[in-house]
Amino acid sequence: MKLFTAHTMVAAAAALAFAIPAAHANEAQDAAAGKPLAQADACFTCHAVAGTKIGPSFTDIAKKYASKSEDDAEKAIEGDIKNGVKGSMMMAHPSISASNLDKIADWILSLKK
Ligand code: HEC
């Protein structure tokens, strides 16, 4: 029984060791895919990578969330894109898929690094 437990823990640790770099690789790929999506969704009409246009720059948005965890930052940014920011020109984008929202948020957050 003890042997079985040890084996299970080794297997779990090995799985974790593989899972961590894989998640990072995905985020890098997502970030690379995010910019063309933001361009296709006309985000650059109001936002630039650097410098305020009608809306804040994507770099400033990334910095605003720099102190939050990656998960919290992604959730907040995805929510703002999907639902818009009431009382501002940031309109809702209900037709952007969850997977594309994730890619756009990963790209925005990559700008603070
Ligand atoms: C018509 C102009 C306009 C377009 C188009 C637009 N935005 Fe915005 N966006 C704004 C403005 C203005 C704000 C600032 C809202 C506020 O907080 O007052 C904003 C805010 C945001 C925020 C929240 C920033 C924060 O402080 O939390 C995100 C994220 C964002 N935009 C992403 C996008 C993305 C991605 C797209 C394309 C899908 C997009 N925006 C398209 C004008 C626009």
SS class: mainly alpha
Low-confidence stretches: none
What is the CA-atom radius of gyration, in angstroms?
18 Å
What's the assembly state of these chains?
single chain
Percent of residues in beta strands: under 5%
- Report the total helices: 4
What string gives the helices and strands in order? HHHH
Bound small molecules, by name, code or SMILES, are: heme C
CATH topology: Cytochrome Bc1 Complex, Chain D, domain 2
Distance between the termini: 46 Å
- Global shape: globular
How would you describe what is shown here?
It is globular, with a radius of gyration of 18 Å. It has one domain: Orthogonal Bundle (Cytochrome Bc1 Complex, Chain D, domain 2), CATH 1.10.760.10. The mean pLDDT is 88. It contains 4 helices and no strands. It is mainly alpha-helical and 113 residues long. Helix 1 (2-40) crosses helix 4 (98-110) and helix 3 (70-83) crosses helix 4. Helices cover 65% and strands 0% of the residues. Bound molecules: heme C (HEC).
